[in-house]
Amino acid sequence: MATVMQRIVKPKTQAAKRALDVRSPKLEENDKVAMFIKGGHTSETITQVLKELYLLKKPNAITFKRKNIMRPFDDQSSIEFFSQKNDSSLFLFGSHSKKRPNNLVLGRLYDHHVLDMVELGVVHFRSMQDFPTEKIAMGTKPCLVFEGEAFEQDHEHRRLKSLLIDFFRGVKANNVRLQGLEHVLQFTAIDGKVMVMSYKVLLKKSGSRTPRVELTEIGPALDLEVRRTRLASDDLYKKACKKPKKGKPRKVKNVKTDVFGAKMGRVHMERQDFSKLQTRKMKGLKRQAPSNKENAKKAKTESSEPTAEES
Amino acid sequence: MATVEDVLESVTQSQASKYKTIEVQKDIEPQLDLGNLLTVDQNPLDLKKLRGDKEAYLKSQARDNTQLLFNAIWKLPTERVEEAICVKLPETTTVLPREKPIPKAKLQTKWEQYALLKGIQKRKKGRMVWDEEAKDWKPRWGYKRANDETKDWVIEVPGNADPNEDQFEKRMKAKKERVAKNELQRLRNIARGTKSKVPGVGLTPTEKPSKEEVGLALHLAKKSTASLGKFTEKLPKEKEAKHVGKKRKFEPAIGDFKKEKEQQLNIINVMENKKPKMDITKAVNRVMTEVDQEASSDDRRKRAGKVKNRRGPPRKKGSGGFGKKGSGGFGKKGKAGKGKGAKGMGGKGKGMGGKGKGKGKGR
Question: Annotated region Disordered: where (chain A) (predicted)?
Fold first, then answer.
């Protein structure tokens, strides 16, 4: 259905309608959410890898607490089901077996069907805890660096590059705070292996306006080897990459900026009885009951009268 | 003697040497996608350094590439957003697949199509309406709306109404029917839009069905039995339904000019074609049957000459039907037994009669 209101069963509440709207296909899409799933058997390395990558991907990430016995390369239906339920289109599945030690399956979905899947083996892993430096705040948009000729020449590596960009790029941003560019993720392709390094950026003074960049290694360092791949056919990939024609940008109503650059808006209220407004209660300012008032008045006049008489 | 310029130069030089340079030298310029904060470096990696001190080499590479990226970012226009200096990033250049398919355009309802055709503009009506009874502005529709019939606490019974009829109940029923009708029309619009089958008139409920509609509904109900109404008895005054079955649809007289033009030109093209449009298989089959008939007639004449009691024991399937049926059978064979038929008949002739017939039948 094109819109939520053109479904056969219309939602009965506004909240339900909004929830369905969030999940419906749109011109400008939401940021992709990733699922971190553990397989039937996992090793300590793999659980640690999943944990740390989840921290990198937060808050657009969901981690599954329980182990899920599934084989992504054989049967994609459970991944597709999870994607449907969690409204997410990226996944990272970690498992360990004798045949495939420290296995990671990185994948993405289109329309809740698996598009690309790449199986990576963790050959070497250094955790974030092994680097005793200060870390970065959650949700920082990282700068991505890809090195190595394989990422341009080999078809599988090219798709892997696209998949890694999709996974790690963070929120789609129009503006970026210059001080907030703190995180750098580097992916290097060397004969069938991909090295992943994560750095924190320090900006040093240089002679000019642009600062000098210095890096300190912080986050996890992974040595991955590319094992199997299941890539989408070219026409399906093309279909998924199709860009919609951009409609007219929606006019933002009611928002104006005044002379000083402050954003102004108008709020329309109904008529209110200001005497019956619900405000903070300050006991001292409370209006006393009329009987008390009169007594107080009487007491006052009595006390003042004799003085008047005296004088 | 040191001139002022010399002094200034030395000062700037010393200052410059204090800070490290932001220049980076690369053989192939890395591709930058500023919208994604992405750098793609295609320079070949130094394998010696990799084997040596891998981490230091990778770090230096990362530093260089990030420096290039930052140099580009710092060149972008900045703006101040609530005490922070922000940079406006351009659109992303990397093509990444979408999460979900592109949303389909909204389907036009039947009314919208008609309005477009007639040029009827939509007039926006205000939300609040003056309610004379309550002397207040109330919403036109929805909760606590103005002029709500169902909420009347007193209803005058009209003169011609049945005294035992519940007028309140009547109004509630009318409302329910209106709601149901609206829902039906909405679903019909969706069904029409998604090109699924829409139940035609006569099956869908209407408030006051006319005589014809009742007749049509009756006819459809009768037909929707397992034996298509053949054994249902006719009602005493039931008339045979006249205009039933599919209507032939003709193109409108003045419609799509382009289509009409194309059709007319096609006709002329077919007429003017020098080569006649021929069904090759049909033609071949016809030729074959003619050949076979000739062959059979020749054989008959020959045999008639030789064997006197040609018509001995009557061959059940073979000779009797030889001339007619055989050829007819083979004529009908068409594409399938083309080669076989020709060989079978032409070659072996009569002998093949029964067999040939068998072949023809058992195709």
Answer: 269-311
Distance between CA atoms of B209 and B107, rounded to whole angstroms? Answer: 29
A259 domain-assigned: no
Please say whether the beta carbons of A58 and A139 come within 8 A: yes
A-chain CB neighbours of B78 within 8 Å are 178
CA separation for the pair A219, A79 (Å, rounded): 28
Among chain B residues, the shortest Cα distance to A209 is held by B74
Q: Mutation target for A interface from B100, B104, B179, B194: give the one with most A CBs within 10 A.
A: B100
- Selecting from A6, A175, A215 the residue whose C-beta is nearest the C-beta of B62 gives A215
Assigned domain for A253 exists: no
Residue A48: domain span? 30-172+179-240
In chain B, what residues touch A172 (CB-CB under 8 Å)? Answer: 92
Report the predicted TM-score, pTM, of the whole model to 2 decimal places. Answer: 0.66
Measured between CB atoms, which of B36, B62, B101 is closest to A25? B101
Q: Is residue A255 part of a domain?
A: no
- B19 SS3 class: coil
CB A210 within 8 A of CB B22: yes
Domain count for chain A, please give it.
1
What is the DSSP pairing of strand A183-190 with strand A143-147?
Answer: parallel
CATH of the domain at A84: 3.40.50.10480
Q: With residue B272 as reference, give the H or E element that holds it.
A: helix B257-272
Residue A35 lies in a domain: yes
